[in-house]
Amino acid sequence: QLQLVESGGGLVQPGGSLRLSCATSGLTSDNYAIGWFRQAPGTEREGVSCIRRSRGSTYYADSVKGRFTISRDNAKNTVYLQMNSLKPEDTGVYYCAVREYYCSLSRAEFGSWGQGTQVTVSS
User: Fold this and answer.
1) What is the tens place of the pLDDT at every residue in 69-97?
2) Which of 31, 67, 79, 91 is buried most, with the most CB atoms less than 10 Å from its CB?
3) DSSP label at 103?
């Protein structure tokens, strides 16, 4: 059974850092991509970053380029999102999701999701 489990969220001050993890299980192929999305109250879920498992190709939303870094540990079936220089507007529930083959930052192109982890950036 396919599962994605996020962890690592919390409360952090502006300018601080957090590292999120997305542990996956039940994937039967190596040809997939993991995306990170976030959703603040009253807003649409937006794509933040994505990584392809096989090639390690990475993609970022403009709003996080230079501050967030996505990486993978294939041996642990885990994808990480290192978030630095956090801003209050980064607050939201962060989700990871999986799709076949290629990366995307479009929510509609991902079919399996984790339960989310809350990130709050506030002084």
Assistant:
1) 999 999 999 999 999 999 999 999 999 99
2) 79
3) -
Alpha carbon distance 25, 27 (integer Å) = 6
38-72 pLDDT tens trace: 999 999 999 999 999 988 899 999 999 999 999 99
Burial class of 28 by CB neighbour count within 10 A (0 to 12, 13 to 18, 19+): exposed
What average pLDDT score do residues 20-36 get? 93
Phi-psi label, residue 5: left if phi above 0, alpha if psi -120 to 50, beta otherwise: beta
Q: Are 53 and 33 a contacting pair, CB within 8 Å?
A: yes
- Written as one string, the DSSP assignment of 32-87 is EEEEEEEE-TTS--EEEEEEETTT--EEE-TTTTTTEEEEEEGGGTEEEEEE-S--
